[in-house]
Amino acid sequence: MNYKSLRNKLVGYMLTTTAFVFAQQDIVYQNNFDQLQPGQYDEEQAKEALGVNFCKGADEGRVFVSEFRSKGNVLMVKYPKGKVKTNDSGMHTKVFWNNFESFEELYFSYNVYIPEDFEFRAGAKLPGLAYQTRDRNMSLRLMWRYDGLLEFYNHFETRPSWDGWTASVNWSLLDPYDERGGPQPDQVKLQKGAWNHIEVYHKLNTPGQNDGIMRGWFNGELAIDITDNRDYRQLGEGDIKLNGIYLSTFFGGSSNDFKPTKDQYAYFDDFIVSKTRIGDNSGEGDNSPLSVRFKTPSSDLTLQEGYDLDVEVEANDAIGSIREVKLYVNDIFIRRERIIPYTWGHDRSPNPEELNGLTAGTYQIKAIATNNRGDSNETSFTLTVQNNNACNFVLPASQGISGLDNIYYDHVYVMGNNDSNFLNNFVNFSIKWNPQYDELSKFAVLTNNGSPNWYVDFSKTAQFQLKDVQPEITLKNTGFEGLDDSYWVTVQDEELILKSKSRSTLICFSNSEEVPLCMRNKNQEITAVHNTQKIRLHPNPSTSFIQLQGLLRKNTSVHIVNSAGTIIANAALDKNNMLDVTGLSNGYYFLVVKDDRYQKAIPFVKY
């Protein structure tokens, strides 16, 4: 080697070392295997080399340290012909860092080399982060599937109970939970004959809440980004934290589709666990010119209660593209936008009232823009909401209740009742009142759990006077804890209001997502219940058919609306609530589901 080459190599080493020193304080674990002797490792040698308590596959001749061109020493793992699972395929161990510290969030990265003649078969496991104690565990591994398609393979301490849960989560930015109909069009694949860099980020959720983050980068590009994970920790599992690496790689499954038809090898290098982003040293950095600002409003804003607000965000990246912009109110996530213009609260929004209904106070409205490399930037403004004294609520009312002909309400708001479970199974309330004949033929609640029944009508057992001044009603033997009582009754702003005669309880049946005027500025806690049917579209995006899941009511109309807000088709559903979208042009649409007491607009993509 000549002097110039030696000098350049030393300068490069010094720069790399300097960068490493700055990042060293954030590194929790690191192993590039260069300190180990090449050769086959039995279990005792593997335990000493890796600092682990066991290593399946080592005594069986499946664990090696091998020299690899331009990479130094690497970990080589064998997958024998026709063999699957940990006893017979690959290697399986758990690595804990030296001080056994545990973390709420961590980054983990490594490189894996797949030879040109490799067979992926139906699937195999890859390493990931983990939680492990003597009797409890959570594993956050990865898998490859046919053709090397990447996915998370998660097993939590408590199996999630929500419909549609699966351990497999595709590395896709479109719909990572969609398993039907083949891979997502943007799902990434391991490449043969090349080193593949994998980095994951897990931020554990607050127990029982959906604020966990599950993110992954493939060769430096963001490939999956789930920010509402609720499965890491259920209620009572706050002690669960990340404390190790599940260094586990083997062909899984039991059918012949999983079994390799020949002996195979994969190579692993550069295992790093860090408290901050690691990256793949490909030139990606945090200095990209990513800008974001509020276009409307352009500065802090003061409004009166009952305001109508929509906002627009401008986001640009000079060397890449904007993947999404998320909006928050006081750090509470509202909605993400992925299509320009980035707007919230407008008439064609999935929820035009998403920024309205805030009571008097000061709020931070924040937007976070993320580009296609996973870099983020944020901006914010302050919204001040002032009191609106338009509510002149007086009970008992000075006049009777006008006719209510089978009116439905799908929201209920409660104030002054200290039981947080009060009416928590409420779906809707309906009333049919004819003052001409002094007839109350319906005063009913629909529940979501059949307790005390799915449909409970109090009209036959209630004592009432609704026709004249000081309208009132007395409910007995309702079956709802805390509901039996005598109430003053009135209707204001199309909302039906009940006020207990003897207690502070105030109940408002409404069709608005805004807190009723009669409850604002009372300095009391308000409980809101809205259990109207939750509708999901699957798959979304779709090329041919979409199924509406969670559609409970009959006689529901469904319309397809384009991005300009124009109804372009009345949708016909088959008996399985399947919708044919084959004839639509590729693009962004809304499915508007509506009946006489419910309306929801759900976005979907046809491609």
Task: Write a structural description.
With 607 residues, the chain is mainly beta. The protein contains two helices and 41 strands. Strands 1, 2, 3, 4, 6, 11, 12, 13 and 15 form a nine-stranded antiparallel beta sheet that branches. Strands 29-30-31-32-33-25-34 form a seven-stranded antiparallel beta sheet, with no helix packed on it. Strand 31 and strand 32 form a beta hairpin. The longest helix is centred in the N-terminal third of the chain and has 22 residues. The chain is elongated, with a radius of gyration of 30 Å. The two termini are 56 Å apart.
List keywords for this structure.
607 residues; mainly beta; 9-stranded antiparallel beta sheet; 7-stranded antiparallel beta sheet; 2 helices; 41 strands; 43% strand; disordered N terminus
Unreliable spans: 1-23, 282-288
Structural class: mainly beta
| Overall shape | elongated
Q: What is the CA-CA span between the terminal residues?
A: 56 Å
How would the blueprint of this fold be written?
Layout: H1 3-24, E1 27-31, E2 39-40, H2 43-50, E3 63-68, E4 72-79, E5 91-95, E6 105-114, E7 124-132, E8 137-144, E9 150-155, E10 168-170, E11 194-203, E12 212-218, E13 221-229, E14 244-249, E15 264-274, E16 290-296, E17 301-304, E18 311-317, E19 322-329, E20 332-337, E21 342-344, E22 361-371, E23 376-386, E24 404-409, E25 411-415, E26 426-434, E27 439-447, E28 455-457, E29 463-465, E30 472-475, E31 485-492, E32 495-500, E33 506-510, E34 526-529, E35 536-538, E36 545-549, E37 557-562, E38 567-570, E39 578-580, E40 587-595, E41 598-606
Parallel strand pairs: 17-23
Antiparallel strand pairs: 1-15, 2-3, 3-4, 4-15, 5-14, 6-11, 6-15, 7-8, 7-14, 8-9, 9-10, 11-12, 12-13, 16-18, 18-21, 19-20, 19-22, 22-23, 24-26, 25-33, 25-34, 26-27, 27-28, 29-30, 30-31, 31-32, 32-33, 35-36, 36-39, 37-38, 37-40, 40-41
